[in-house]
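Crash report, auto-generated. Payload:
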Amino acid sequence: MTEKTLKVQKIEEGTVIDHIAGGKGWEVVRLLGLEEFSGTVMVLSNVHSKSKGKKDVIKIERKQLDRDEVNKIALVSPSASVNLIKGFEVKKKYNVELENEIIGILKCTNPVCVTRVEPVKTRFAVEGKDPLVLRCAYCERIQRGLEFA
Amino acid sequence: MDIISTRSMSKDFLEDIIKSAKKYDSDKDFTSVLKGKILATLFFEPSTRTQFSFQTAMQRLGGKCVGFSSTEGTSVKKGETLMDTIRTISSYVDCIAMRHPKEGAAKLATEVSGVPIVNGGDGSHDHPTQTLLDLYTIRKGLGNFDGLNIGICGDLRYGRTGRPLSIALSNWDVKLHYISPPQLSMDKGTIRHLKDKKIAVKEVMKIEDVIKELDVLYMTRIQRERFPTEEEYLKFKGVYVVDPAMMAKAKERFILMHPLPRIDGITLEVDDDPRAKYFEQARNGVPARMAVLHKAITE
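Recovered output after restart:
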């Protein structure tokens, strides 16, 4: 990502989520609740990428991502990377990675799963990452798609 | 220990229960085994065999039972969560056997219970103690599992017995024949699990297509309560019936099983055939659940 290819101002402090799968950036914005965020958020969609053809990039001023937020990104775009910015410089960079268990951020897609009616955090075992295969720890059903809590 | 999911049961565990069930399948006095212990049978959904056989098993082991067989008159009707109900009752008793319409309810109960939980059926998900008594019945009737051709017929999608029985049988070298209409066929996740375990699976629509090959035919009920509408249910009601003419096509060394109630799946004339094992199967629920309760409470 260079100033030459992306004509968007640098942020002084915050997070840049890079290499999001092309077109998935808006989903990430929604998942992270960034529509409600009071700071500056920049979304670049379908930017040219050498390795992937197209990618999305999100710049968020004055925000650090927590573990749940990184997990959410990993669920919709496992190729994404996260850059922590301080003083206009990248201080830390890491790739998002799916953990072996996803806790509390998804609803079970099984309409008769007990987690749909009881006040309990959902848990899913990640049985496959590509393609994504999630099994509910309670009803043991393989998930059909993703439904965020 | 909790007994919740067939998927998590090892072959050693299954063999251990079968061996223990065989020991308890006698007229000997076992009333000192769980003397002084109390079992709560919490049936949020109606049941005849499962609840009664749990209670009988506990009493044959010398323990006592408390519980309910419907949520009428309980705090559940006042809106109490399952978690609070379990948390409270587990402080009164030594073990809970429960049936609940929601899938995963028993697993959730283990997270708040201070005593072992035994799953007596959770929606269409699992019914592990039924599977254990089914395995015991096959072992008792035919001696071994390896090499058997086992047909499972009826509602394989919404029924709670065919799937866990298949998963348990995948610990041995069996061939499974699924007999159902496509709308009620076994789910793909289970078929994939069986293929991963190198189990041969054949899917057909008619019993006649496989009856001659089978060592076991496990009939299941097309369950009215699992269908969204009466109209959907009526499409499948009475599609599969075993009668004396069908039994005449089966092998001499063959057993016919059914978790009951049979409704119209097996005609009354079949009851006199020595290969009809469904009432013996229901009776085996007591020694099998004695084995389960002993393990749950003491390990």
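Post-recovery validation: Residues 128-282 of chain B form a domain with the Rossmann fold fold (CATH 3.40.50.1370).
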